[in-house]
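Subject: mismatched residue count in predicted assembly?

I count 399 residues in my input, but I want to confirm that the predicted structure covers every chain. Input:
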Amino acid sequence: MQIAVASGKGGTGKTTIATSLALSLASDFDVWYSDCDVEGPNGHLFLKPEITQKSEAVIKIPEIDPVRCSLCSKCVEVCQFHALAKIGKTILVFPQLCHGCGSCTWNCPEKAINEVPNPIGMLETGMTNTGMHFSQGVLTISEPMPTPIIRQLKRTIKPSENSIVILDAPPGASCSVVETLRGVDFALLVTEPTPFGLHDLKQMIGIVTEMRIPAGVIINRGGDTFSPLEDLCSDFHIPILMHIPFERRIAAGLAKGLTLIAINPDYSQKMQDIYRHISSILASNKG
Amino acid sequence: MKLLISAQQPELEGLIDRRFGRSPWFILFDTDSDSWEAFKNPGVEKSGGAGVAAAQFAVDKGVNVVISGDFGPHASNAFHVAQIEMRLFTQDVLHVNQAVELFKQDKLPEFI
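Triage response: the counts match. Full output below for your records.
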């Protein structure tokens, strides 16, 4: 089963939930935690894995052979990302705009395009001392495109049939979140009872609805009832799976690098309950 | 000489746009004939690569000078290669025709 932990708004507690959920299940299941927040992966701070393998994440960008190129401009026309321009007697390549789709190479009538690897970051995999598989993508600073590295990171995960994959999604509601959500069985949406949390949860619900991914909500840093959030969930028939209260003890523990279940072991059982709840939702969807 | 000026409206007397890649319109002004024409910026609706798309448009139109409030790294790179001159609006420029006049008087600073 693949579960993505996403939020829309940043700083609502995705990594808090994802790491504790993963740890709570690790004694009974083969768990694969993967930090897809490649612009700022921080799950490693809590899980403290031993990284045993590092490889470069690359995208293949075009390199034009000026001898073969007839300057027909076909590559420029087919590139929907405008990573190519025909300027005088040269075809200019803009590597930071290239998504590595290969359309230019495919369409070049002169076979004048070679694809050369352009490194954009690192893929790191290993294990935690609790026996959990760990992986994270690290996008190189100033590289603008997180989606290829997320795609390649997800390919490093090799679950068996009964494994549980937990994807710690990036914040926001853009391409990198969609890339993380692609193919998952369930989206766990972490939010907070504020207008910002509400606004961004709406966006996330829009995405999971469009992608037909069943979802549940965790309201973090709660306290008094914030009815717009609960109304939104009930309008879209999205269950609220857990409330985590706003507690100084939790904030202080997280700031020290402790996981939620280390701060309060009761959450271990609660996380297992959430997993069972998700399993039953998925089972009833199938039936 | 052909000037391309980023504009908010398809009018010579219209407001300039200080953005290059994302400006909705371009005014192409020919200083030899004092004639002008407005074009939609093909870059404006792109999710990415707007600067390159707009620069490609300028190159294809055979302009000699582009005038805007600023040029991003991709567009300016393309213009350097194309040897197209980049000039900047001064603070007092509001309308396209003002930019044309100031260019003729060589009062618009170069983009470096």
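The longest strand of chain B covers residues 2-7. Marking this ticket as 'not a bug'.
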